[in-house]
């Protein structure tokens, strides 16, 4: 008879319903609790289950969507800052090349002025905006993580006051 592991869902062939057998998927011992012809109710043996991990109230939960969102904002801010710095480098190299080609009065030409001004302004805004967003998101992440510590301290105080 084929049964399904209640923990991992792996299919296990059970020949003798009276014996306990290990699950090939997760390794727990499966024991038959009840059954009939073509039917077996199995559960995991208590001694084969892994020990529960200690709960740490100061640690943020795994896979926290708020922290994941903060991480995405940080990556975007880093990208914006690097893009802004790259634009500033392009504008600087263009200015150096134009200075070498046209001499000290290269900036009087309308095309050079507009290009350098537009690229420099865009690069500056991206670099400063990326840095500002990164700092703000990092501060909010720290504030969010500190809330776990505050909750743990409040829980410890209430346990001491109400034994």
Which blocks of ≥5 consecutive residues have pLDDT under 50? none
Span from first to last CA?
52 Å
Structural class: alpha+beta
| Percent in strands | 5-15%
Number of strands: 5
User: What is the alpha-carbon Rg in Å?
Assistant: 32 Å
Looking across the biggest beta sheet, what order are the strands in? 3-4-5
Shape: elongated
Helix tally equals 2
| Main sheet characteristics | 3 strands, antiparallel
Q: Domain count, please report it.
A: 2
Mean pLDDT, all residues: 78
Elements, N to C (H/E): EEEEEHH
Q: Which range best describes the helical content: under 10%, 10-25%, 25-40%, 40-55%, 55-70% or over 70%?
A: 55-70%
Fold and architecture overview:
It is a single chain. With 163 residues, this protein is an alpha+beta fold. It has two domains: 2-45, Rubrerythrin, domain 2; 65-161. The protein is built from two helices and five strands, in the order βββββαα. The chain has a three-stranded antiparallel sheet, with no helix packed on it. A two-stranded antiparallel sheet has the order 1-2. Helix 1 packs antiparallel against helix 2 (110-161). The model has no long low-confidence stretch (mean pLDDT 78).
């Amino acid at each position: 008879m084929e049964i399904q592991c209640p923990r991992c869902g792996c299919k296990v062939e059970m020949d003798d319903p009276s014996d306990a057998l290990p699950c090939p998927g997760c390794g727990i011992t499966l024991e038959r609790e009840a059954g009939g012809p073509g039917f077996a109710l199995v559960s995991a043996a208590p001694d084969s289950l892994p020990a529960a991990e200690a709960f740490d109230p100061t640690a943020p939960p795994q896979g926290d969507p708020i922290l994941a969102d903060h991480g995405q904002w940080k990556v975007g801010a880093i990208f914006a800052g690097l893009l802004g710095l790259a634009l500033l480098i392009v504008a600087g190299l263009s200015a150096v090349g134009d200075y070498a080609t046209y001499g000290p009065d290269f900036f009087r030409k309308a095309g050079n002025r507009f290009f350098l001004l537009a690229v420099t302004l865009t690069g500056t805004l991206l670099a400063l905006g990326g840095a500002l967003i990164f700092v703000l998101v990092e501060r909010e992440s720290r504030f969010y993580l500190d809330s776990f510590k505050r909750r743990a301290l409040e829980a410890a105080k209430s346990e001491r006051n109400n034994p």
